[in-house]
Design brief:
Blueprint: H1 31-40, H2 44-47, H3 57-69, H4 72-79, H5 83-92, H6 100-111, H7 119-128, H8 134-148, H9 153-160, H10 173-189, H11 192-199
Helix pairs in contact: 4-5, 4-6, 5-7, 6-7, 6-8, 7-10, 8-9, 9-10
Length: 202
Amino acid sequence: MGSRQWISATPCNLGGCYLGDTYGLGVIDDPWSELTARCVRPFYGQLMGVNALEATPSVLAEVATFVDTVRADQVVHLLRSGWREQVVGAWLSVAHEYDESVILAVSNALETSQVGRTAPALLTALVALETPIAAASITRYYEADVANNWGAAGLARAAAARFPQSTIPKASAADTETFLALLVIANCLKPAADQAAATGDP
């Protein structure tokens, strides 16, 4: 398996210092609880909101190992769970761009999201997944965010700008820059084979 771009000195190599909270894992019999202990508890604080922009390359490399190994049904389970699980599930979803159940779970999680902790990752995932339903889902989230002041409308505008048919108002330069940086991380977390296919590299 080839190396991800952001592990080397490329524009994907986004450094930082925010480490969030980590927890002891212990021995757990329930497979879903084990999944949460293994994938969610050590990372959700570093991936929620826009914190991924400050995650160190070593942390992103750890997350990438789960992108490669967590199954689609496990990602769907995370996306249908609490906000911490949804944050991590959004980032892990980028490996499943052809799985309809994952795409629908990301869309549903976004449209029911009411906090800025989850929306940035979910918006990023929808765009990175390049799904036809992304534009409509982002629009519905944006309208609800504006009506309820959830705090991620600016990033929703930046995400919608990726779709020419969108009627959402233009995003600010700052929100656009932030969203594009999140999108770089999502694309770099994709399996190496997907990255090669996207760039045309052998």
